[in-house]
Amino acid sequence: MRKSDPRSLAKNGQATIFASSAKLRLLKRLQCTLRFEKQAWAAGARLVAGVDEVGRGSLFGPVVAAAVILDPTYRIRGLRDSKLLPAERREELAVRIREHSITWAIAAVDSARIDQINIYQASRVAMLQAVEQLRPEAGYLLVDAVKLDCELPQQAIIHGDALSASIAAASIIAKVERDRMIATWDPVFPVYGLASNKGYSTPQHLAALREHGPSPLHRQSFAPVWNAPTPQEVLSFMRDSIPVEEDTELINVAPGT
Q1: CATH number of the domain that residue 165 is part of
Q2: What is the pLDDT of residues 195-237, one digit of tens each?
Q3: How far, CA to CA in Å, does 109 sit from each of 4, 67, 179?
Q4: Across the beta sheet with 103-109, what order do the strands follow?
Q5: Mean pLDDT by 10 residues, the chain (257 residues)
Q6: pLDDT value at residue 233
Q7: HSE (side-chain half, CA atoms, 13 Å) at 13
Q8: Residue-number span of the structural domain to which 137 is assigned
Q9: What secondary structure letter does DSSP report for 2?
């Protein structure tokens, strides 16, 4: 595999950060309300679920989705796109969402599956799995940007997590859960700074990939990962479970091969 110029990787990482900053400025100007929920309720839908995913742009770990049916009689103040909220505020809101929603559910698709079917399809699978876990079941879906493969009536809303309170609620509990999941891996893979970057393309994370190569939980199909010049790390428990011939280089064995 051709090795990439580290300077190109750095520039790509900086471009990603600049694009993310521009998107955040746009989202801050949008108003998160119950407008879409009220339209669905007025049309006869009783249980309206907001659906969203987080972690789509991360280089590490699963994509996590959530579905939330808000209680029309209880207003949770402060709902907005999870990316616009500080971590402490997200944690507070996640507790209130779980306590005061009619129902909610979370689902995840791991990095190996992401590499098999691509991140777009993995995101849709995770969102659909979250919807299918809802009890009581949803009668109508408000989905952030995509259409799901199910027979339920649904509306795809661009920037839905910044416009719809239900989608924002799903974004918040999915973000809190994914951050918790990624933080548990930080002591296992300390060189990547996962506790702070959550697997995204920060300069520190990209530099660690160049120096140490990817972990088994990195998304091997993502360019900054497969471009890393250092072979993939193999964990000790994987090393013990993989039968190899004498003198075989375990460091070059990928999970599932």
Answers
A1: 3.30.420.10
A2: 999 999 999 999 999 999 999 999 999 999 988 887 666 555 4
A3: 29, 15, 15
A4: 103-109, 63-69, 48-54, 140-144, 154-157
A5: 51 57 66 95 96 97 98 94 93 98 98 97 98 98 97 96 97 98 97 97 96 95 88 54 36 30
A6: 61
A7: 24
A8: 29-176
A9: P
Taking the C-alpha atoms of residue 201 and residue 57, their distance in angstroms, rounded to an integer, is 8
Angle of helix 87-100 versus helix 165-185 axis, rounded to 10:
120
User: Which token pair is 26?
Assistant: 């746009």
Q: Which residues pair with 104 in a beta bridge?
A: 68
**Residue 139, domain member (yes or no):** yes
Q: Residue 162: inside a domain, yes or no?
A: yes
112, with CB counted inside 10 A (0-12, 13-18, 19+), is middle
Q: What is the token pair recorded at 115?
A: 């590499």
Task: Count CA within 13 A, CB hemisphere, residue 20.
Answer: 14
Backbone φ and ψ of 23, nearest 5° = -65, -40
CA distance 175 to 14: 23
Total structural domains in the chain? 1
For 232-235, which contacts have Cβ atoms below 8 Å and span 24 or more sequence positions? 233/189, 235/188
Report yes or no on 13 lying in a domain: no
pTM, two decimals, is 0.81
Within a domain: residue 67? yes
Q: What's the residue count for the chain?
A: 257
